[in-house]
Amino acid sequence: MSKLTHNEIAKKMELFKTFDEAGSGHIFWEPNGFIVFDSLRKYIQNLHEKRDYKLVKTPIIYKSGLWKTSGHYEKYKENMYFLKVDNEEYGIKPMNCPAHILLYKSKFRTFSELPLKLFEFGYVHRHELSGVLNGLLRVRSFTQDDSHIFCTSSQIKLVVSEVLQLINETFDDFGLYERKYYLSTMPEKHIGEKKIWDRAIDMLRGALEENDIVYEVKEGEGAFYGPKIDVEVRDSIGRRWQLGTIQLDFNLPERFNLTYIDEKGKKQRPILIHRAILGSLERFIGVLLEHTQGWLPLFLLPIQLRVVPLTDDQLLYSKEIYEEIKRRYPKARIELYKPPSNLSKVVKESIEKRVPLLIIGRKEVERGSVTFRFHKNQKEFQKLEFIEYFVKEASYSE
Ligand SMILES: [Zn+2]
After folding, report:
1. 244 alpha carbon to ligand 1 midpoint, in Å?
2. How far apart are the C-alpha atoms of 124 and 56, rounded to whole Å?
3. FRET partner for 310 with CA separation of 20 to 30 A, picked from 113, 130, 262, 385?
């Protein structure tokens, strides 16, 4: 059977819209889509809170002077949106780095605070050409799971290793097991000296090798401010997507004159690591929709379960299951149906909208069991065993 695009799946599931009136490339999440987006956000937030990341939130618009200091004005201007207010030029952020740097600089810092891991669901705008826009996969505004880690040079290997492990754990959770790692080196358009670049590349290499990760080198494909490790995943139809990234940066700490006081009371320059796991939440949802054909993990599905008794005789038993799930997990997105006059219509519509089913017949009531249908998979569980399984999976992002 041919695979559907994420745009086709999203239409069936009523996930998002784009409007010409708002400008193309900007996503309007519908109620179902927002459930997917927000559940993914919660899942990512939990992962980071468990690992001592500090969550922050920063503005969208900044004076152009900041973009001049960061180098974006010189190297990234064609991808940015600008506006004039009170005769002063402002730029809309295409990245969160300068904002996190301002927070770092706002305080006197000592070695005991490092590594300092600032994390933000950063909402950024980038002006992509209209010809390349495609649903969630290529957009002009999106939400990054973005972190900037300020650390000492001796902490680099440990910090990068930890991020590599977080990337692996996250993609395992979504069944994206096939991954490729790339180490990208100095591009033609860059800031900073070659000596600094060489040192940064050596450290990334060291972290990869310490984790027994096989990688390829991409010569000249680093960011303009530093070398990076990119993680590419392969989806169910064999396409490759560049998602996670870890970028070392010796240059921005220099440009913004960032410092900390070391153990001996001496002023030192911290190292900045830019990193994202999914990259863009919007794009990741697009990839995941195509990878799973809409059969997302239960915790992301807009409707997590439809309980359908075949006749009135199974109504009470069905209601017990529904109520027990709601009792254990009040936010469960489940529906209890009345016995349908046309079962095949309910089944067809549920599959179309990617809703898992629990069809309760006489056999199930007699055996004290349920038959759970998730896409093409069908499995019989004991009633309590299913309730436990379902609540665990459905509340995974809580
Ligand atoms: Zn950054």
Report:
1. 13
2. 15
3. 385
pLDDT at 361: 96
- For 348-396, what is each residue's pLDDT tens digit? 999 999 999 999 999 999 999 999 999 989 999 999 999 999 999 999 9
Any idea which residue has 């991954």 for tokens? 179
- Active-site residue (options: 100, 109, 125, 126): 126
Q: 276: CA distance to ligand 1 center in Å?
A: 9
d(CA 32, CA 74): 40
Q: What does each C-alpha distance from 12 to 7, 9, 32, 326 come to in angstroms?
A: 9, 5, 11, 26
Q: Per-residue pLDDT tens for 122-153? A: 999 999 888 888 899 999 999 999 999 999 98
Of 144, 247, 268, 304, the active-site residue reads 144
Regions of the chain where pLDDT drops below 70: 1
| Residue 148 is a catalytic residue | yes
d(CA 135, CA 37): 14
Cβ partners under 8 Å of residue 92, min gap 6: 60, 61, 80, 81, 82, 83, 125
Domain with CATH 3.40.50.800 in the chain: 303-394
Location of structure tokens 């390829």: 216
User: What class does CATH assign to 6-292?
Assistant: alpha beta
Distance 146 CA to ligand 1 centre (A): 7
Please state which architecture CATH assigns to domain 303-394: 3-Layer(aba) Sandwich (3.40)
- 3-state percent breakdown (helix, strand, coil) of the chain, nearest 5: 40, 25, 30
Within the chain, residue ranges assigned H as helices are 6-13, 31-49, 64-70, 72-75, 97-105, 156-173, 194-210, 252-255, 281-292, 315-328, 343-352, 362-367, 383-394
Report pLDDT for 226.
86
What's residue 235's pLDDT?
86
Whole-structure pTM value: 0.94
**CATH 3.30.930.10 spans which residues of the chain?**
6-292
- How many whole angstroms from 166 Cα to the centroid of ligand 1? 18
Q: Is 144 a catalytic residue?
A: yes
